[in-house]
Amino acid sequence: APGLLETPMNTAYFQDEQFMQLVKRELPVGRLGKPDEIANVVLFLASEKASAITGAVFPIDLGWTAR
């Protein structure tokens, strides 16, 4: 369950200074996520180290749901 990600597709959207102030204020980490952060979780879940994990949702949202 990814949160706000910084990608080429939405770069213009995140250039709005007011929106970025909101992101920094509302997200506990204070920044947008990066695609590599999602990829790292996917790689872990596809590895043997995650073989006992089933039916789980992993929020990769920089603390949005935890706040």
What does this structure look like?
The protein has helices at 17-26, 35-46. The longest helix has 12 residues, at 35-46. It is elongated and about 45 Å long. The protein starts with 16 loop residues before the first helix and ends in a 21-residue tail after the last helix. The chain contains 2 helices and no strands. By secondary structure, the chain is mostly helical.
Q: Give the C-alpha Rg.
A: 14 Å
| Estimated share of beta-strand residues | under 5%
Q: Main beta sheet: strand number and arrangement?
A: none
Give the distance, in angstroms, between the N- and C-terminal Cα atoms: 16 Å
Estimate percent helicity.
25-40%
Q: What is the SS-derived class?
A: mainly alpha
Keywords:
mainly alpha; 2 helices; 67 residues
TL;DR of this structure?
The protein is an all-alpha fold.
Element layout with pairings:
Layout: H1 17-26, H2 35-46
